[in-house]
Write a structure and sequence with these properties.
Order of helices and strands of chain A: EHHHHH
Largest sheet of chain A: none
Radius of gyration of chain B: 20 Å
Structural class of chain B: mainly alpha
Number of strands of chain A: 1
Structural class of chain A: mainly alpha
Shape of chain B: elongated
Oligomer: heterodimer
Distance between the termini of chain A: 54 Å
Strand content of chain A: under 5%
Largest sheet of chain B: none
Radius of gyration of chain A: 15 Å
Shape of chain A: globular
Helix content of chain B: 55-70%
Largest interface: A-B, 53 and 65 residues
Number of helices of chain A: 5
Order of helices and strands of chain B: HHHEHHHH
């Protein structure tokens, strides 16, 4: 096995073994992502309102990237098709 | 429909713009082509799943997530096109550079050594393959899903089960972490 440097070793271990507690799957995360992002935009803390969603975003880097991008996009895009 | 496609194209371009620096090998024409493909595919998904929209968010937010996800997946797959995914080989983090004290260095080294043992001892071959690829070799989950002919969701379930076994094993050895959220 090869070795490579990253960040703090304690954080690295946590990243590898993932969050503790109930966690959504990727499909459920996708289904709830828009509602979660809008909650955050109103100032609601995601880890309090939807802890299983928050846990999944900690554990799944791909869904976390999707979340971060959607939140940033909705903050900046003025679109309103309603 | 035109407005909706324009929204999806903006969202796809936004996502690709965010990921662009991570993939310098992709040219501008490639990236805009990916944005158009993403917007087109996202439009099909939005139309197919219109019945799922329950009004829990604004329609534009709901629709935009399809383009964001579609574009992110396409960029990651495109960037990994032609790259080999070495599944059995793990790239372990070193502790020497990051640990600020000798004590922390020793502790981190011991934790990683135990984790290596438990990966071999506790995980099924499939769980080991997925855990090593995703958490140690940083293969994007969508790329791995494509190579293994499965889905992001199914792979994450395998990763989740592997992590649960490892946490339990580490706890049994009184070496578990809190798994705190950032």
């Amino acid at each position: 096995m090869t070795e490579q440097g990253r960040g703090d070793p304690g954080r690295e271990l946590e990243r590898m073994i993932g969050p503790v507690g109930p966690e959504l799957g990727c499909d459920e995360c996708f289904d709830q992502l828009d509602a979660y992002v809008e909650l955050e935009l109103t100032g609601v803390r995601g880890d309090v309102a939807m802890p299983a969603m928050r846990a999944h975003l900690v554990g799944c880097s791909a869904c976390r990237d999707d979340h971060d991008s959607l939140l940033a996009f909705v903050r900046t895009d003025p679109a309103d098709l309603a | 429909m035109t407005e909706l496609h324009a929204l999806l194209l903006r969202a796809a371009r936004f996502e690709i713009g965010r990921r662009r620096s991570a993939f310098p090998q992709l040219g501008g024409a490639d990236l805009d082509d990916l944005a158009w493909q993403s917007a087109n595919d996202a439009l099909m998904s939005v139309l197919r799943r219109l019945g799922d929209f329950r009004g829990d968010s604004r329609f534009t937010t709901w629709a935009s997530k399809f383009a964001i996800v579609e574009a992110g997946v396409k960029v990651r797959k495109h960037a990994w096109r032609g790259r080999e995914v070495l599944l059995p080989e793990a790239a372990w983090p070193t502790v020497a550079d990051a640990a600020p004290t000798p004590h922390q260095f020793a502790e981190a080294r011991d934790l990683l050594a135990v984790l290596r043992q438990e990966i071999d001892r506790q995980l099924t071959p499939r769980q080991r393959q997925v855990f090593v690829a995703l958490t140690l070799n940083n293969v994007p989950i969508d790329v791995l899903a494509e190579r293994l002919n499965t889905t992001r969701s199914a792979l994450y379930k395998t990763l989740h089960d592997a992590r649960r076994r490892l946490r339990a094993a580490l706890a049994d050895r009184a070496m578990g972490t809190t798994g705190r959220m950032p």
